[in-house]
Known about the structure:
The complex is a heterodimer.
Chain A: E1 2-11, E2 14-24, E3 29-33, H1 40-48, E4 55-60, E5 63-64, E6 73-76, H2 88-98, H3 104-113, H4 127-139, E7 145-149, H5 157-170, E8 177-181, H6 185-188, E9 194-199, E10 202-208, H7 209-216, H8 220-228
Parallel strand pairs in A: 3-8, 3-9, 6-7, 7-8
Antiparallel strand pairs in A: 1-2, 1-4, 4-5, 9-10
Helix pairs in contact in A: 3-4, 4-5
Chain B: H1 11-25, H2 37-44, H3 48-61, E1 64-67, E2 71-74, H4 78-102, H5 107-124
Antiparallel strand pairs in B: 1-2
Keywords (chain B): DNA-binding, Transcription, Transcription regulation
Organism (chain B): Terribacillus saccharophilus
Pfam families (chain B): GntR
Amino acid sequence: MIEFKNVSKRYMTKTALRDVDLKLDKGKIIGLVGLNGAGKSTTMKLIAGLINPSKGSVELDGEKVTRRIASKVSYLSELDEYYSFYTVQQTIDFFATQFPDFNKEKAEEIRAYMNLDANTKVKHLSKGNRGRLKIILTLSREVPVLLMDEPLSGLDPLVRDSIVKGLITFVDTEKQLVLLSTHQIMEVEMILDEVIAIKDGELVDHRNVEELRYDEQKGILEWMSSIYE
Amino acid sequence: MTDTFQSSQPIYLQLADRLNRQIVSGELKPGDKLPSVRETAVSSKVNPNTVQRTYRELEASGIVESRRGQGTFVTENEDILLSIREKLKQEQIQNFIQVMHDMGYQNEEIKEGLQTYLEGGARHD
């Protein structure tokens, strides 16, 4: 469904990704791991069409990715970029006007599930609740690709847990592809189908997690320490 | 089913093992409906694809049956239930004996120990 063909990305003199070949299938939850600056966000932005490769091509369903890919890709940025004077409900309503594939009933369902008050202003939300709001907005779009850049980062364990449960409950694992980057391996260990490791801009390994356990009796953490040591 | 899984063993096998035990112990009875894939995924906090695979494996072994549009049910076939019961017993015994042998116990000692334990246990019941 998503294919990187010999993709490199340079920012000025710095190489963020080097000669990456990658194939991602639909219906999978895929983790993207690597140290800070390894190229995780760059990989996500290339799929979202927010940046273009310096070399090679990124394709979705055989079509070259451009900015218009936004109609097929829901992207959760690691930044907070919502209007602080809106309430939770107004933010949801605003998103519904921006994306024709936005499912308001689903948003309401997830909001209730996440216990997030609809009338609180975004500027008054705690960090954890802003994290929940991002999840609501990302999962409510009925698109084939969900990209989540560090959805668990900086959140307390209870919030991380509710986000992981939200993913299990609301992602359509038959139709949607989820690519999420994270440092919180423990939290996502049980929900990943595949895991991809990047190191210094290069893709070092891409594994089916259950096969990794079956073939090598290794969990993701052990596998990672063998790569990053 | 909120206990955690071992991260170094396939989750779909651990989940299948758990369900087999629930069936043998009678926690899940013949003809009972298993929770939906999504429900099991949420309650055990694992990927729905993994649960799907577990259900497929259990179906292949005959211990559960999926009925179109209705869900997955524990089999009422007694032969299959008995053979699973026997299989789990053999597995546990094998593990136990393996551990005892690894520590250097002889068969006679093991048998005696078991007998004493079981008879003692019966008295205290």
